[in-house]
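Q: C-alpha cells for this one, please.
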Amino acid sequence: MRAAVFHELKKPLTVETVSDPTPGENQVVIEVCRCGICGSDLHLTEDAIFGVPSGAVLGHEYAGRVAAIGKGVDRVKVGDHVAMMPLHSCRRCVHCLKGDDAWCSSMRVGGGSYGEYSLGFQHQCVSLPKTVSLDDGALVEPMAVGLHGVRMAQSQPGDRVLVIGAGPIGLATAYWARRLGAGRIAVTAGSTRRASLAMTMGADVFLDPADASPEAAARALGGMPDVVYECVGVEGMIARSIDYVRPRGTVVVLGLCSRQDHFMPFTLVAKEARLQASAFYDRRDFEVCADALDKDADTQRAMVTDVIHLEDMPPVFEALRHRTTQCKVLVDPRPRKR
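A: Here is the predicted structure, written as C-alpha cells:
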C-alpha cells in the first residue's frame, strides 16, 4: 500500500510503498477513506520529546471501511463504516473497564492512517450512522476533543464563554459550548480570517485581535467570562487565559504546548480560578460526535477547507507549519481515479 512516512524531525514526510497490514487477534484492517491532518501531528514531527520512530506512519483523525478482521472479532464485520478512536489500551485494567482508555498505563495514541490501510483493534471502532458519509467521518475525532474539553469545564447553563483560538479544536469547542447550554460565546484569534467560520460554529462575537484585551472580552460578553478555553498551545496563552477569566471561573487548557511556559500563580490564586487540563476523550464522546454528524453535518463540514490526495500531502503538511488560510485539511489516501 501507499503511505506518507515520517523519517526525520523537521523534514517532509515521504510517500512510499509499505507492507499491507495483517490483522491479528481482535484486530481489524481499515480501508482509510478520509484522514484529517492534525496540529498534534505537526508537533510530533518537530519535537524529539514525543519520540516518534523513523518509519512511522502517523495520522489519527480518520474514518473508513472495515476491510479485514482477525480472530475473535465479533463487534464489527467486513464492510462496516467506522470512525476510529485512536487509543490503544490493554482493555483489562480498571480504567479500560470504566471506558477511560486514555488513562490505561499501556495506552498509546496511534492510527497509522496517513496511508491506504490502517491496523487497529475492534474496540477502537465506533460505528457511523448509515446517513453519515465516510467523507465526513474523519471529523468525529477533532469534534470529540472539543466535546471532552467542554465536559471537563463543568460549566453551568448560560455561562459566558471565551474561546482562544479559531483552529479546528477552538471551533469544535465553540460548537459544543453552544450546544451544551453556554450563554454568550466569544472567540478570539491572531487574525480575523476565520471570524465568519467561528460564527457558523457557534460564536456570538469574534474579538478583533487589534483589541482583544480582557476589558474588550468583558464588554463583548456582558461580563468577564465564566469559562475560558485555551485552544492554541503556545507560550503565554495560559497566563492570558487567567487574565481573562472571572474570579472563581474556570480555564480549560486544550492547546498542546511542548515548551516550558510561565504564568503568575498569584493571579490564579487571587482569583481562586480553576485551571483544568483536557486531553483525549472517551468512547461516549466519540459516539455523541458520530451522532451529531448524523444530525448536523453541514455545520461541522464548514471547517473543511481542503481535501487532498495522499501524493499531494507532504508539501501541504509542511505548509501547515506556518499560518495559512486553511483550517481542516482532509486527506483521501485512496488511489486517484483515472
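A few notes: The radius of gyration is 20 Å. The chain has two domains: 2-127+303-332, 143-277.
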